[in-house]
Amino acid sequence: SPSLMLVSLLVIILPALASAQVEWPKCDDKSDNVVRIFNSPGSQQLPVQLNGASMTTYDANFQPACNTTGGDITFPGEASVNQGTMTVTQKFDARFVTMRLTMKKNDTEIGWMCIDGVAQNGLVDNTFCTFDFCDSYQSVIYAMPICDALTQPGVYKLDEKTPFPIYFFFNPIPYEDRNLMTGMWKISARASLGDVVIFDWTFMGTDDSGWVHITKTGVQ
Ligand SMILES: *[C@@H]1O[C@H](CO)[C@@H](O)[C@H](O)[C@H]1NC(C)=O
Ligand SMILES: *[C@@H]1O[C@H](CO)[C@@H](O)[C@H](O)[C@H]1NC(C)=O
Question: Which of 3, 74, 100, 134 is most exposed, with minimal Cβ within 10 Å?
Fold first, then answer.
């Protein structure tokens, strides 16, 4: 009968689809495109602490972006802190928070790019490695929800309302060198106000290797 034929067709087609899918790396929103953010080792005494924090990463078309280590920081693209809590134990004048990056690529040509905000090779200068975190006009990331929280001690829930757009983050890198960014990185960020270190965060994928993938797409 026709309906029996339809059933047997489905039986044949469905397993074929299922096995074809495992050939592609899975990148489900909020479960695979995840970059976790930890308090860096040794920073547990600092006045701002994260717990269970992570962000999700998207490409320029707002599709989830993944590589083998989980979320792929894609530029142009977007990242959104969407999970965890941030505990603030002191009040800060958030207007003047300085962010210093430490970044190392798994590649002998580039290697260390920034160490605690100081540029290490000719690829970037200090304006990439050190920036005003909370200056909404100058900053390369939009961190206002985090900066507002720094002005008042408390436990803050990080959710979809804590965006972290990274459209401008890579702008200090000369256009012709941006492709060199594609690859595996170790990334941490230390925020301070004058001489006081406020927090030190390390970005990691969903595995425990400590590496995060960055992809420069052809768009920008
Ligand atoms: C780092 O680079 C080495 C040499 O190219 C490679 O064998 C290793 O798999 C890379 N590690 C990661 C995490 O990509
Ligand atoms: C991961 O990134 C590398 C380039 O660094 C690329 O060749 C590879 O296809 C990417 N893998 C996935 C699963 O997207």
Answer: 3
Other C-beta atoms within 10 Å of 147: how many? 19
| Pairing of the two strands 154-157 and 183-193 | unpaired
Model pTM score:
0.85
Q: Where are the alpha helices (DSSP H) in 113-173?
A: 126-129, 144-150
Dihedral sign from CA coordinates of 148, 152, 158, 161: negative
Q: How far is the CA of 162 from the centre of ligand 1 (A)?
A: 32
Residue 67 CA to ligand 2 centre (angstroms): 6
Closest ligand (CA of 183): 2
Per-residue confidence of the chain (220 residues) as pLDDT tens digits? 555 555 444 444 545 555 554 456 789 999 999 999 999 999 999 999 999 999 999 998 989 999 999 999 998 888 888 899 999 999 999 989 999 999 999 999 999 999 999 999 988 999 899 999 888 766 667 788 889 999 999 999 988 766 666 666 788 888 888 899 999 999 999 999 999 999 999 999 999 999 999 999 876 5
Query: What are the residue ranges spanned by the domains of the chain?
Result: 27-216
| Alpha carbon nearest to ligand 1 atom 7, residue | 106
Distance between CA 85 and CA 80 in Å, rounded?
14
